[in-house]
Each structure stands twice: as structure tokens, then as C-alpha cells.
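Changelog note: in this version the structure field was regenerated for every chain. One regenerated record is shown below for reference.
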Amino acid sequence: MSIIYHEKSRIFHLTNDYISYIIYVMDNDQLENLYYGRRVHDREDFSHLHQLSFRLQMSLVQPDPSYLSMHYVRQEYPFYGTGDYRSPAGQILLSNGSRVSDFKFRTYAIFSGKPGLPGLPATYAESEDEAETLEITLTDEVSGTDMVLSYTLFREYPVITRHTRFTQTGDEPVMLERALSASVGFLDMDYEMLQLSGAWARERHVYTRRLERGLQGISGTGRGVDI
């Protein structure tokens, strides 16, 4: 189990005996998920997995030389206003009415164990050697907001847990209109969604269904599931 940061290529590699999760700090200082799947051997540079191709009428954030479009990369945590027309993971409303955000990589920390989530249920590690955690801090300078993406890798399981937290450090108030725990992009659609539905005294009924195009969700009401 290890979390590695390659300074030269600006790539994070989270890996244990089962899985690998690779994050790339792109040229515009935003984050892209390069790989999530079976364990791969570590190397200095995985940037060949970064997909670049010119498409007509694409929205470019960096036209030369990379043709970087946020709509065509698997972002770690997409935000509104970057030229990505998919549903964002986060959205902030500024006091002037703007909802455009530009969170850029600022710093990171790697430490043993898994931090708790005060006031919230969460997975945990009974000892520090059972897990390792990566925290990546990104900043939107216009709103004065810090976003921390937290990833915990467990030694004995093919599991990565995630959560996201925001801190407002600027002078102007902001409204956090949307904040998901995580966002994961996939290259194909051959996946199933498994959920544990139920209510008191009849918990943990396993339901499996194929993922389709469009929005799909789960909402526990005690009487059923809202989709």
C-alpha cells in the first residue's frame, strides 16, 4: 500500500495489492483522473493516458499546444463554468451573481490512517498502518475558497474512500449550491449499480441494475426509493 507523488510529472499514484488510482495535475493546474482499475506497476510518468484530440467546436481552456478541453477529460471534481457541459460535482454562487469557479492545485499532504468526519457516519481504520490518506487542496482565487479532496486507501481491501470539504477564506460571502462527495468518470457504460435498500427491521435488501445514460439516483425515504 502506498500513495506516491511524482514531482516532475505531477502525478499521484494510489496503489495497493489490488487497485491503482492515478491523478494528473494538468497544465491548467486542474485535476484529471488518468486511471482507476486493477493494480499497475508504478512509474515516473503516466501522462500518456491523458487523452488529447482536436474536435470541431470544442471549448478550449488551453489551445496551444495541448488542445485542452475540460469537457473531454475525466475531471477529479468538475465545477461549473470551465467549459465542461456535463453535470458538475460542485457549484458556488458568488455575491455578484456569478457561478463560475476555477479551482487550481495548490498543495497536498500524505499521512497514515484515516481522519474522521465529525458529525457524520464514516468508515475508519483501527490503526494507522491499515490505511493511508491523500489530501489535495485546490483554491479558487476569485471567491477565496479552498477545496480539499480527501482520498483514503486501505491496505487489505480494493477500496478508496473519498470526501470533499470547503473552506471560505475570502472577504465576500459565497453560497455552496452543490457539493458531491466525489466524481468518477468511466470510459464505457458496461457497469451495474448496486444499492442496499430497505427500512427499519428490513434493511439491506440488495438491488442491482444496469447503468444507463442520464441521471440516476437513490433516496431513502423509509417507504421505498425515489429515482
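Spot check on this record: Residues 2-179 form a domain with the Beta-galactosidase; Chain A, domain 5 fold (CATH 2.70.98.60). The CA atoms of residues 112 and 132 lie 4 Å apart.
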